[in-house]
Amino acid sequence: MAIDLDKWIIEADIRSMQSAMEAGVLSSEQLTKTYIERIRAYDRELRSVLEINPDALAIAKALDIERLERGSRGRMHGIPILLKDNIDTHDKMHTSAGSVALAESVASRDSFVAAQLRKAGAVLLGKANMTEWANFMSGSMWAGYSSRGGQVLNPYGPGELFIGGSSSGSAAATAANLAAAAIGTETSGSIIGPVCQTSLVGIKPTIGLVSRTGIIPITNSQDTAGPMARSVSDAAILLGALTGADEHDPVTVSSTQHAYQDYTPFLDAEFIKQARIGVPRFYYGHLDADRLAVIEAAITMLKDAGASIIDPVELACEQTKWDGDVMRYEFKKYLNDYLGALDEAVPVHSLAELIAYNEAHAEVALKYGQGTLLWAEETSGMLTEQEYLDSKARNQELAGRLGIDLAIEQHGLDALLFFGCDEGDDLAARAGYPVITVPGGFADNGIIAPGGYSTKGPQGITFIGPAFSEPTLIKIAYGFEQATRHRAAPKAFS
Q1: Which residues of 79-101 are buried (b: 16+ CB within 10 A; e: fewer)?
Q2: What phi and psi, each to the nearest 5 degrees, are found at residue 253?
Q3: Cis before residue 439, ω within 30 degrees of 0?
Q4: In the list 11, 76, 174, 430, which could disulfide-bond 395, CB 3.0-4.6 Å?
C-alpha cells in the first residue's frame, strides 16, 4: 500500500514511521527527502533551519540498505532529526551557536549527543537556528534571533506570536513538521520555553543524564541537551537514544545507575490515577486571566483523571531573590575552553577575541549589542571568585534541597505542577533537576512579551521533579497528554 507522504507526514510519530519502514511501504530516503522538501518550501518564512546536511539523503539510503540486509538498529533507525546549532557534528555541517563569527566552523569530532544519535541510526537532517550564544549575548536580543540565521518565527503566528528561546529553531521546525523531532539545549528555559509556545513536548533532563561534551556551553552547572518532539512517546524514544556514560563528561559516568536506554516502558497512562501532584500557587500569582484558565483546566483534568492534587504547596525558596552569577562566571571559563580548541582557521579562540570580532563586524554581528558578553568578560575565567562559589552553593541548596526536594518530601509528591516556561523551570535549572512540558491548550489573548510578541497561542503545562525522576515525569506527562490531546499542528504548515 502506497503512502501519500505529503499528507501522511503531518504529525506522523516515530513509531508510525518505523512501522511503515518495517512494512516496506516507506523508506528513510523517502522520509528524509520529504522533510527536506518541506524545509525548502516553508522555512523561508520561519527561518528555523540554518542548513541541511548535504549527506542526509546518502545516510538515509545507507540505513535503508542496512535495514534490508541486517535489520533495524532500533526505534531511531532512519529517523530524520534536527540538531540545535550549538551541538558539534563532524561532517559537512557547521556549528556556530548562531554567530557569524563561527559561521565556517566545522567541529573536529562529533559531540557525544551526535555520536549517540548516529549509533542509534538517526539521520542527522541539519542544524536548527537558535538565539545567538543561547541567549547569553545581549539583554535586548529577541528570542530566536541570530546574526547567522536571522529571526526564527512561530509557525502558529509568524511575526505575531512569541517563539521563546534559545532552542527556537528546533521548536519551530518540529512544530511545523519539518523534521521528525529535534534536539535542543537548555541552561534555564531554553528547551521548555519554545516548546510551550509551539504546542510541543520537551524534556530537560537531570544534569548528568546526557553528556555535554561537544556542545557550545554557557555553564557546566546547568547545561544539558534534551529532546523536543510532537508527543511524549517521541520525546521518550529520543531521550533513550541520548543517554550514556561519557568519559569526557565525568558526571555522566557517576549517573549511569539512574540512566535508561529505553524510556518507553514509562509511557503508562494509568499511572496518573495514583500520582500525587503539588500546586505551588505562589508561582501562579502573576498569570493573566487566559493563562490562569489554562493551568486551572489542567488541575481539574488531573483531578478528574484520579490524581491526588495537593493545593497549595509552599516552597521554602519562594521569596528568594536569584542572581545570574553562576552563568556569568562559568560562561567565560567554559566558552574559552571550547573556542580555544577550535581549528586555527576559525577567527575567534576566546571570549575576548569574540567580542573584538563582533566590534569589527558590528553591522552584521551586533544588531542587539553584546552587553552580556562584556559582562562575562569582566570575570577572571578561573572560577575562583567567592561571589561565584557562594551563588553556586546557594542555587543548589535553596532551589534543590530546601526547595523542590523539601516540598516533594513533605507532601509525598511525585511532581510539582507549573505553568509553561515560568519560574519553575528556573528553579529546576538551578538545582540541576528534570523538567517535562506538554501542550496545555491555547490562550486567546495574553500579555505582550518583550520584543512585541503576544503570549497568546499555544501554552505548555510543566511537571518538575527531583533528580533523575524522568521515569515518573514521563508517566505523568503521558497520562496528561493522552487525556487531553491538546497538540494541534499549525494550520498554515499542515
Answers
A1: bbbbbbbbbbbbbebbbbbbbbb
A2: -65, -40
A3: no
A4: 430
Answer whether 50's CB lies under 8 Å from 129's CB: yes
pLDDT digits (tens, 9 = 90+) for 352-409: 999 999 999 999 999 999 999 999 999 999 999 999 999 999 999 999 999 999 999 9
Taking residues 161-173, what's their average pLDDT? 96
Q: Which of 147, 170, 190, 391 is catalytic?
A: 190
Residue percentage of the chain with pLDDT more than 90:
94
Residue 447 reports pLDDT greater than 90: no
Reported for 352-359, long-range contacts at CB under 8 A and 24+ positions apart, including other chains, are 352/377, 354/99, 354/101, 357/101, 358/101
Q: Which of 48, 99, 138, 166 is catalytic?
A: 166
Which of the following is catalytic: 27, 48, 84, 456? Answer: 84
∠ CA 277-280-286, nearest 5°, is 140
- Per the CB < 8 A criterion, the answer to whether 256 and 200 are in contact is no
408 burial (CB, 10 Å; 0-12 / 13-18 / 19+) is: buried
19 classed as catalytic:
no
What is the pLDDT at residue 224?
98
What is the per-residue pLDDT for 448?
66
- For residues 452 and 144, the answer to whether their CB atoms sit within 8 Å is no
Catalytic residue flag (residue 188): no
Ranges 182-196, 310-324, 440-454: which has the least confidence? 440-454
Rounded alpha-carbon distances, angstroms, from residue 442 to 112, 126, 461: 36, 30, 11
pLDDT at 450 over 60: no
**Region 427-445 average pLDDT:** 96
Output the furthest CA–CA distance in the chain (Å, rounded): 67
The answer for residues whose C-beta is within 8 angstroms of residue 307's C-beta and 6 or more apart is: 272, 273, 274, 275, 276, 277, 476
Backbone angles phi, psi at 141, to 5 degrees: -70, 135
Predicted local confidence at residue 423, as pLDDT: 85
Residue 420 C-alpha from the chain's centroid:
13
Q: Which among 347, 343, 293, 319 is positioned nearest to 423, based on CA atoms?
A: 319
Cell of 315: 516552597
Report the DSSP beta bridge partners of residue 415. 277
